[in-house]
């Protein structure tokens, strides 16, 4: 052991060690990315399983059907008649239906303002008291008037009503059942879930007049399509990439495929062969959804409150009718009703690559962590280098002459050369300044009216692409930064980036991974001397700037930049989505510093001064 | 049985002349409620004179319970088993003005005669443990953390002489987690003189009782001293339940609510889309037909021969316009407005039939013909948690005074577990007026709504919080009372097996001191709450233990060795016997070898072996 220690101490002084970090960094990035691509393989992913024994999915007979279909048809007529009526009129009608069933009805108004637009509406909800229960727990059934694509959820709402009427007949419910009908799927459920947990701003969102107990789960029906369907699409992404407990998804998939014999799909993969390519595609789609952190359906707003929720959408043309979907939901509710404890057994952090295949956090997290660690390693490397500035030149020379002799001399000289003082003020000031600058786009894009968002964005992108070219010459002419200062600048910026990303990886793996990957060139930024190379590097960084990436991604996905920006502002104000914060206050400042460093010019005269 | 009674009755009369003839009577009151529910209130009352009781002469008073009461020095006892929630909005005021109900689970309060608090605690322990055995309930879990001594909320119901009043201690305990079920009903019925074999108690069946939308079983024991008469000890057992008619009518062998055949659905034919396969249902609107045997699952088997024949066993509280048919031999008495009673034949089965009341067509009936309009309660109360997260939380209780002109005064009592650390300074009341000049919601001025607070803070693991608030609510207004609390982290072993479910918090007890129209106090209970505490991942401690143990074993072991042990050369240390033995054996072997191998130089093998040994460091 002592020998080992002394060996390590000796190795620490070896100058060759200082050359390792950039390669190590690169290796980490490569391993991190390769790791992700390994995940869909059979050896690295696992089959899903039901972890909570109490759920017993598919173990009960479901009886929804028969004459309930007559009732469903009647409700569908009622709902169709309300398609063009106002929110309040439609809710009046619903209230009379709910009251006719003997339920407690509540209504809630909300008004959100985002990007100059007003999102207002009235939620209506009905509580079916558990016949022998005590208002301690509840399950939620959501059916919005309109789904996220603004389609009229005709069948979904009629099905929810018919199911409610059917549920009322059972006496076995151990939890209250709350039927929530928001006017649309984006802000309505958010207002309701906020108010239910008293996390609402009472100026925008009204409090709920009646409440029940702790919410144990939520299922949203999104069923605008007509005719028979083939399978169900399970949407599970929550806000900020939070996910529901895997048991809930498994339960639904298990009931749908095992009991009802209908297919199920995730992440819009309608045809899934369960081979490597499809698994990878599903996983990457899931990661993009998670990384964006937006609400994928009316269920998303529940997940931040630790209420596990999914949205189910019938898809395709098959032979399944609405009663089959009703029975699947009945089965899911019976399973949730069996729960003795809050869903906690199974995973909350996972990547699904097939409806029955997943990787858990322990397996996938290293890939994002490795990418984030590369920044930290480079930061430490640059910090050490910045303290040994003169040595680089001398060591290089001596090494060329005689390796062993040089190393020996290095060892003796090390104490004297190591004591170079670091000039911290300029780098610290620049990094802090760029971090604060990041709040400007965050504020502007979240508060500007929708009409000028796109123009503003282009203007800001152009500005942010130009600003390094302004800062850099100013810096050079006014402060004459040394190589050490450039290294420190890079070091601080990368240190922050590495820290933020590794912390973010535990919260939102995908976002951390995506940002980390796009920020990889920043790791290797240094003041290049070759003019051609310098501008080539600057061009690469320009292409990978947050503004350009967002514009290109918006154009490539066909969504349109204005929609993306509006969604981001809406997400920030209504959902509490932090993706804009990460982009503008983590990624953008690091990028800015990176470009400034690349465009920088080390002052030769000072170098000479020092070496003489 | 009848012969037996007829022989014994004169004897009883001789023994207890003061107790009069009404030593035991029972009555069932049926009250149809809106939305096809019916409230069934069973009342069994028996008494024995205090002198007889003290002489261990119990008669109708159940001996098993009486002995416990005597042993534990109990002067007055109230025990409640409740399940479900009373829907005050639909069903109106509570039966018995809420005095015969408890919070969900089991609730017990009693006045014990004891010289000191310690003695009272001791007797309370005896009482809870004995009752626990008698009623098959976990009453023994009412320990010091669940026991409180209410100051303002409860008043003795019986007549106590002033001499004993001074020594009486009120103790109150509640088990919100206890699920009331058949095993509690059986001992309850056993206390009755007719034991569920005859009379109205024969209608009590666990399947129906525990399928009710709300039910409460109560036992009250109290001394009653009529003016000028001898004091008697009265035991009153009541069972109240709200039955959902449609659900109760389902036969026991086919309890699954399968969808009815399409032609049996009651449809709204006025809808334009109404057809053979499209039906807007109307079935929950009109009153359904029901009979006693349908909703209770069996018919009444005669009357209890021990009961006072003057008290009619079954009454129904419904408008006189509601048709009620009876089985043969039953006499109907119109007692008062909206109430009819029935004298049942002693031995025959008794049956009541309430036919279907069509709301349409000829002879259309309205809701007013179907049930008596429920009485508006004096106060509505609803309690829920606010906030989210693992650290802090809040409780909000909403009180609504529905009366347009009278204010209501009440005492609000909460018995909270110690791990819910409330911040009393955050207790505040906001008041919202529905009418008048100051319409809208405002923060109530100090002392306007909240009159008086009695607060006994929690002690960790020893006792819970007791909070009593006397409040007054002006007419036509709603008060939102809120307070915040902190969730404490329990010790690893203090979590129950289903820790992730949460912890039940008992319902608050509201004692309304404003008198009801007929001059009685009333009370109500809020629903219970489910408190989620921060819960550790229970598999994690094992991982941590394994991991840290390994780390300590490796790091500490190595470090300890380096620090404590001294390294010396082998020749410097004392010779260890085993090494010496080994050396001897080796020497012997080499000697043997040198003897057999003549050509080799003697002693060489031994030298090599010795050299090797010298190299190895010996550890002392």
UniProtKB/TrEMBL annotation, chain A:
GO terms under biological process: attachment of GPI anchor to protein
Which keywords does UniProt give here?
Membrane, Transmembrane, Transmembrane helix
Q: Which GO terms describe its cellular component?
A: GPI-anchor transamidase complex
The residue ranges crossing the membrane are 20-41, 361-384, 424-445, 452-471, 491-524, 536-561, 581-602
* Entry-linked Pfam families: Gaa1 (PF04114)
UniProt xrefs under InterPro entries: Gaa1
Q: Which PANTHER family match?
A: GLYCOSYLPHOSPHATIDYLINOSITOL ANCHOR ATTACHMENT 1 PROTEIN
- UniProt name for this protein: GPI transamidase component GAA1
Q: Which organism is it from?
A: Neoarthrinium moseri
UniProtKB/TrEMBL annotation, chain B:
The record's section on InterPro entries has: PIG-T
- Which region ranges are annotated with the description Disordered? 247-266, 592-620
**What biological-process terms (Gene Ontology) are attached?**
attachment of GPI anchor to protein
Q: Where is the signal peptide?
A: 1-20
Q: Name one GO cellular component term.
A: GPI-anchor transamidase complex
Its transmembrane ranges are: 540-563
Keywords, ordered alphabetically: Membrane, Signal, Transmembrane, Transmembrane helix
Biased composition of type Basic and acidic residues is found at 610-620
Q: Which domain of life is it from?
A: Eukaryota
- What Pfam families has UniProt attached to this entry? Gpi16
Write the protein's name: GPI transamidase component GPI16
Organism of provenance: Neoarthrinium moseri
């Amino acid at each position: 052991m002592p020998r080992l220690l002394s060996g390590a101490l000796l190795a620490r002084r070896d100058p060759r060690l200082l050359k390792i970090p950039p390669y190590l960094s690169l290796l980490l990035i490569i391993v991190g990315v390769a790791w992700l691509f390994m995940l869909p393989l059979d050896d690295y992913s696992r089959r899903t399983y039901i972890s909570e024994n109490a759920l017993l999915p598919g173990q009960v007979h479901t009886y929804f059907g028969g004459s309930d279909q007559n009732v469903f048809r009647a409700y569908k007529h009622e709902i169709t008649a309300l398609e063009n009526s106002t929110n309040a009129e439609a809710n009046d009608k619903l209230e009379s239906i709910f009251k006719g069933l003997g339920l407690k009805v509540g209504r809630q108004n909300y008004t959100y303002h985002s990007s100059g637009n007003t999102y207002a509406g009235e939620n209506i909800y009905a509580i079916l008291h558990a016949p022998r229960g005590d208002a301690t727990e509840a399950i939620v059934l959501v059916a919005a008037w309109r789904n996220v694509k603004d389609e009229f959820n005709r069948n979904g709402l009629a099905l929810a009503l018919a199911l409610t009427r059917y549920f009322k007949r059972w006496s076995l419910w151990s939890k209250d059942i709350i039927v929530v009908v928001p006017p649309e799927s984006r802000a309505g459920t958010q207002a309701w879930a906020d108010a239910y947990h008293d996390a609402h701003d009472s100026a925008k969102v009204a409090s709920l007049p009646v409440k029940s107990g702790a919410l144990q789960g939520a299922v949203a029906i999104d069923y605008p399509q007509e005719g028979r369907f083939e399978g169900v699409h399970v949407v599970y992404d929550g806000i900020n990439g939070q996910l529901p407990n895997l048991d809930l998804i498994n339960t639904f998939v298990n009931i749908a495929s095992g009991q009802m014999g209908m297919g199920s799909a995730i992440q819009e993969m309608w045809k899934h062969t369960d081979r490597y390519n499809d698994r990878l595609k599903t996983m990457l789609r899931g990661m993009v959804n998670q990384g964006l952190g937006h609400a994928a359906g009316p269920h998303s707003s529940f997940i931040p409150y630790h209420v596990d929720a999914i949205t189910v959408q019938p898809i395709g043309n098959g032979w399944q009718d609405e009663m089959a979907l009703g029975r699947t939901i009945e089965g899911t509710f019976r399973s949730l009703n069996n729960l003795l404890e809050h869903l906690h057994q199974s995973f909350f952090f996972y990547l699904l690559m097939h409806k029955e295949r997943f990787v858990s956090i322990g397996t996938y997290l290293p890939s994002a962590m490795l990418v984030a660690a590369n920044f930290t390693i480079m930061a430490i490397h640059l910090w050490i280098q910045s303290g040994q500035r003169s040595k680089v030149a001398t060591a290089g020379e001596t090494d060329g002459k005689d390796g062993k002799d040089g190393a020996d001399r290095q060892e003796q000289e090390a104490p004297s050369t190591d004591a170079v003082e670091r000039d911290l003020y300029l780098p610290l000031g620049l990094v802090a300044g760029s971090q604060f600058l990041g709040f400007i786009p965050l504020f502007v894009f979240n508060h500007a009216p929708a009409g000028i968002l796109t123009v503003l964005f282009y203007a800001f992108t152009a500005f942010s692409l130009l600003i390094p070219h302004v800062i850099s010459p100013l810096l050079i002419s006014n402060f004459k930064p040394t190589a050490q200062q450039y290294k420190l600048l890079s070091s601080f910026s990368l240190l922050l980036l590495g820290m933020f990303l590794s912390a973010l990886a535990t919260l939102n793996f995908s976002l951390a991974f995506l940002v980390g990957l796009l920020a990889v060139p920043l790791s290797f930024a240094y003041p290049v001397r070759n003019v051609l190379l310098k501008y080539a590097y600057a061009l690469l960084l320009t292409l990978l700037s947050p503004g350009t990436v967002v514009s290109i991604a918006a154009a490539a996905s066909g969504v349109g930049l204005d929609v993306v920006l509006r969604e981001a502002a809406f997400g920030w104000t209504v959902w509490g989505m932090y993706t804009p914060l990460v982009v503008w206050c983590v990624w953008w400042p690091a990028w800015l510093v990176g470009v400034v460093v690349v465009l920088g010019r080390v002052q030769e005269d000072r170098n000479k001064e020092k070496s003489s | 049985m009848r012969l037996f009674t007829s022989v014994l009755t004169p004897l009883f009369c001789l023994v207890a002349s003061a107790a009069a003839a009404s030593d035991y009577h029972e009555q069932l009151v049926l009250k149809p409620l809106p939305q096809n529910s019916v409230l069934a209130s069973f009342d069994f009352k028996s008494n024995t004179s205090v002198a007889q009781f003290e002489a261990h002469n119990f008669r109708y008073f159940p001996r098993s319970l009486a002995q416990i009461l005597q042993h534990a020095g109990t002067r007055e006892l109230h025990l409640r088993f409740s399940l479900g929630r009373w829907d005050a909005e639909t069903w109106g005021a509570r039966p018995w003005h809420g005095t015969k109900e408890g919070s969900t689970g089991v609730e017990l309060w009693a006045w014990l005669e004891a010289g000191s608090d310690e003695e009272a605690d001791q007797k309370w322990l005896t009482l809870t443990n004995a009752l626990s055995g008698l009623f098959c309930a976990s009453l023994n879990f009412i320990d010091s953390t669940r026991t409180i001594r209410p100051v303002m909320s409860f008043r003795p119901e019986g007549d106590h002489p002033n001499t004993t009043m001074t020594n009486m201690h009120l103790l109150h305990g509640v088990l919100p987690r206890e699920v009331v079920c058949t095993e509690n009903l059986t001992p309850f019925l056993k206390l009755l003189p007719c034991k569920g074999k005859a009379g109205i108690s024969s209608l009590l069946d666990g399947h129906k009782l525990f399928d009710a939308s709300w039910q409460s079983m109560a036992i009250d024991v109290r001394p009653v001293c009529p003016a000028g008469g001898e004091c008697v000890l009265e035991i009153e057992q009541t069972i109240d339940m709200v039955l959902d008619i449609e659900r109760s009518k389902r036969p026991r062998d086919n309890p699954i609510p399968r969808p009815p055949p399409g032609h049996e659905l009651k449809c709204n034919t006025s809808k334009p889309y109404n057809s053979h396969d499209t039906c807007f249902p109307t079935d929950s609107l009109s009153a359904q037909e029901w009979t006693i045997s349908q909703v209770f699952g069996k018919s009444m088997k005669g009357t209890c021969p021990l009961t006072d024949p003057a008290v009619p066993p079954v009454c129904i509280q419904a408008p006189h316009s509601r048709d009620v048919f009876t089985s043969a031999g039953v006499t109907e008495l119109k007692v008062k407005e909206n109430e009819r009673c029935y004298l049942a034949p002693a031995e025959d089965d008794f049956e009541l039939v309430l036919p279907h009341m069509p709301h349409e067509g000829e002879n259309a009936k309205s809701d007013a013909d179907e049930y008596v309009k429920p009485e508006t309660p004096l106060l509505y109360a609803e309690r829920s948690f606010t906030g989210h997260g693992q650290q802090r939380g809040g409780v909000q209780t909403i009180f609504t005074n529905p009366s347009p002109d009278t204010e209501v005064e009440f005492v609000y009592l909460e018995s909270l577990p110690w791990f819910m650390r409330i911040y009393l300074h955050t207790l505040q009341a906001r008041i919202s007026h529905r009418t008048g000049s100051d319409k809208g919601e405002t923060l109530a001025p100090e002392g306007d709504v909240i009159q008086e607070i009695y607060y006994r803070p929690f002690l960790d693991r020893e006792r819970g919080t007791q909070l009593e608030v006397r409040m007054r609510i002006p007419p036509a207004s709603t008060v939102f009372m809120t307070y915040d609390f902190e969730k404490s982290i329990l010790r690893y072993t203090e979590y129950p097996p289903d820790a992730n479910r949460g912890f039940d918090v008992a319902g608050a007890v509201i004692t309304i001191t404003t008198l009801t129209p007929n001059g009685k106090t009333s009370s109500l209970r809020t629903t219970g709450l489910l408190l989620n505490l921060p819960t550790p991942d229970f598999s994690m401690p094992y991982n941590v233990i394994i991991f840290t143990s390994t780390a300590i074993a490796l790091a500490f072991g190595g470090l300890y060795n380096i620090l404590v042990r001294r390294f010396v050369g082998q020749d410097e240390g004392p010779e260890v016997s085993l090494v010496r033995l080994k050396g001897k054996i080796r020497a012997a072997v080499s000697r043997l070898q040198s003897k057999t191998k003549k050509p080799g130089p003697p002693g060489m093998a031994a030298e090599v072996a010795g050299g090797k040994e010298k190299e190895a460091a010996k550890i002392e």
